[in-house]
Design a protein that fits this description.
Domain Core-binding (CB): 1-90
InterPro entries: CB, DNA_brk_join_enz, Integrase-like_cat_sf, Integrase_catalytic, Integrase_recombinase_N, Tyrosine_recombinase_XerCD
CATH class of the largest domain: Mainly Alpha
Number of domains: 3
Number of helices: 14
Helix content: 55-70%
CATH architecture of the largest domain: Orthogonal Bundle
Largest sheet: 3 strands, antiparallel
Low-confidence stretches: 338-349
Region (Disordered): 101-120, 323-349
Keywords: DNA recombination, DNA-binding
Organism: Actinoalloteichus caeruleus DSM 43889
Distance between the termini: 78 Å
CATH topology of the largest domain: hpI Integrase, Chain A
Radius of gyration: 28 Å
Mean pLDDT: 85
Length: 349
């Protein structure tokens, strides 16, 4: 069987899983990238490569070349994709065994939340953008504030924001919820409070002013660009980055994060305020409870590190050392010897 035909059979078999378009596209990219390298290893055209070409030796060489030009996370995702694909081939009797066990892979990097730095940074960001800090040809602070709010108080991913429609806001005033379709087509409902309701209402009013002749269908995208079309992924990322820059807060955004830093800030604050892993999992749409637990553990580590960095600790350490030296001089024994002596006394406390 040709390798490309086996891959199409793999995607056909996955259709009942209702993978999101983003997941399917990522799987196709991972399969296509390694398939091209396999074809080069065997010196044949991609269309002519047979499934037997996906053997351990060729895959090892292909993944080695792939790793030379891709990040660790990309290599790990490609390894997982190929492992699933070849496991399917074994189950279907297309291959006698899965060779991926012979292919090294990077270790799964631990989750490292990347919230905005600085206790009051989210509030400063919202105030600055609401006041029109972001400069543009046609400023639209109502939309900018809504995008930031969706990240900071509902924890939405970029793709989830773009999939929101007018119908996504459900319920009566004061009891509204946001209906979200997340990764793997998993759906969740997030309660929204009065302040976010008002942000949404102001944004919709601004849409009616900007596009007076456009009929707002309930199935239409909630977030739109300057032409009234659904906002694109790149435009959404640029919007958030420029909000940080114009607000003068770009130095408080962790490296490698922009829009996702808003989601991490939401999750971190939940953990700091006492939410348990199940509550975080439900609100953020995590597939695994372990992912949600990581936010709680990371928050604990960061709190301890912050406490340890307190300048007064250095002064306290100096005082303790000076006291120990003084006691040692007066008793004629070292601090450690003095401690041992006290430990041996029955009345020592």
């Amino acid at each position: 069987m040709r390798l490309l035909r086996a891959q199409e059979a793999f995607f056909t078999a996955r259709r009942p899983r209702k993978d999101s378009p983003h997941t399917t596209a990522a799987y196709r990219r991972d399969l296509a990238g390694i398939t091209r390298l396999l074809a080069e290893e065997h010196a044949v055209a991609v269309a002519d490569l047979g499934i037997e070409g996906a053997n351990a030796e060729a895959l090892r060489a292909a993944f080695g070349r792939f790793a030379d030009t891709h990040a660790k996370s990309s290599v790990l995702r490609a390894w997982s994709t190929w492992n699933q694909f070849l496991t399917f081939c074994v189950a279907e009797g297309i291959l006698p065994g899965n060779p991926m066990a012979a292919i090294d892979r990077p270790r799964t990097p631990p989750l490292s939340p990347k919230p905005l730095r600085g206790e009051g940074t989210p509030e400063q960001l919202l105030r600055a953008v609401a006041a029109g800090a972001r400069r543009a040809r046609r400023p639209w602070p109502e939309r900018d504030v809504l995008v930031l709010s969706l990240g900071l108080v509902t924890g939405l991913r970029a793709g989830e924001m773009r999939e929101l429609t007018l119908d996504s806001v459900v319920g009566r005033p004061g009891e509204r919820r946001l209906h979200v379709r997340g990764k793997g087509s998993r759906e969740r409902s997030i309660p929204i409070e009065g302040p976010l309701e008002r942000v949404i209402e102001r944004y919709l009013a601004s849409c009616r002013t900007r596009f007076p002749h456009r009929r707002q269908r309930r199935s239409a995208a909630l977030l739109v660009d300057q032409r009234g079309e659904p906002i694109g992924r790149g435009a959404l990322e640029y919007l958030v980055k420029s909000c940080f820059r114009w607000a003068g807060l770009h130095d408080r955004v962790p490296s490698g994060a922009s829009l996702h830093a808003l989601r991490h800030t939401f999750a971190t604050r939940l953990a700091e305020d006492g939410a348990n892993a199940s509550e975080i999992m439900a609100l953020l749409g995590h597939a695994s409870l372990a992912t949600s637990q990581n936010y709680i553990e990371a928050t604990g580590r960061e709190q301890r590190a912050a406490a340890a960095s307190n300048r007064t600790y250095r002064a306290l350490a100096a005082v303790a050392e000076a006291t120990e030296r003084s006691e040692a001089d007066s008793s004629g024994c070292s601090p450690s010897g003095r401690a041992s002596e006290l430990a041996g006394r029955p009345d020592a406390e």
